[in-house]
Amino acid sequence: MSRDRQEAFIDLVLETFRLSSRLLASGDALVADIGLTSARWQVLGALALSPVSLPVAHIARNMGLTRQAVQRLVNEMERDGLVSFRVNPHHQRAKLVILTSKGKSAYDAAMKRQRPWAANLTSVLGTAQIENTAAALRALRERLDERTSTR
C-alpha cells in the first residue's frame, strides 16, 4: 500500500467514524418520539426485512454487534411490546425474536420518516457517488470479515 493510499484510507476511516456518530444521533432524534433509538430501529429492521424469524445471535451478527448487547436491547424491546419471544425448534435456549404489531407500526413510522430525511441528506450526492461509496465500504467490510473468519 503506497503512502498516499494509506493516508487516504486513514481519512476514510476517520470520516466513517464521524459519519457513524452523526447518523446514530440523527436517527435517534428522528425516531425518539415513537419510542425508538437508532439501535432499536436497526433491530426492528432486521426483523421486518427477514423472511424468517431470527434468534438474537443472527440479529447481532447482521448488525455487527455482540450477542449480549442485542440481547439486552431485545429484552427492553419486549418489555415495551415491540418484540416477543418464541420457542426456537432448532435450538432449545436460543429463542426466536418476533416483531409484534406495535413493533411493526413503529418500524413503518420510522421508515416513513426516513425517506424524506434520506432524500434531503443525499441531495448533495449523485446516485453513482452513493453506489460507489457503498461498494467501497462493502469491499472493506468483506475484507475485514475474511480476516476475522480466518483467525
Task: Set down the secondary structure blueprint.
Elements: H1 3-31, H2 38-49, E1 54-55, H3 56-63, H4 67-79, E2 83-86, E3 96-99, H5 101-121, H6 127-149
Antiparallel strand pairs: 1-3, 2-3
How many separate structural domains? 1
Count of beta strands: 3
**Distance separating the two termini:** 22 Å
The percentage of residues in β strands lies in 5-15%
Strand order of the largest sheet: 1-3-2
**Average pLDDT for all residues:** 93
User: Which fold does the CATH topology refer to?
Assistant: Arc Repressor Mutant, subunit A
Radius of gyration: 18 Å
Name the descriptors.
151 residues, mainly alpha, Arc Repressor Mutant, subunit A, 3-stranded antiparallel sheet, 6 helices, 70% helix, globular
Structural account:
The mean pLDDT is 93. The chain has helices at residues 3-31, 38-49, 56-63, 67-79, 101-121, 127-149, and strands spanning 54-55, 83-86, 96-99. With 151 residues, it is mainly alpha-helical. The protein has one domain: Winged helix-like DNA-binding domain superfamily/Winged helix DNA-binding domain (Arc Repressor Mutant, subunit A, Orthogonal Bundle), CATH 1.10.10.10. A three-stranded antiparallel sheet has the order 1-3-2. The chain starts with a helix and ends with a helix. Helix 3 crosses helix 4 (67-79).
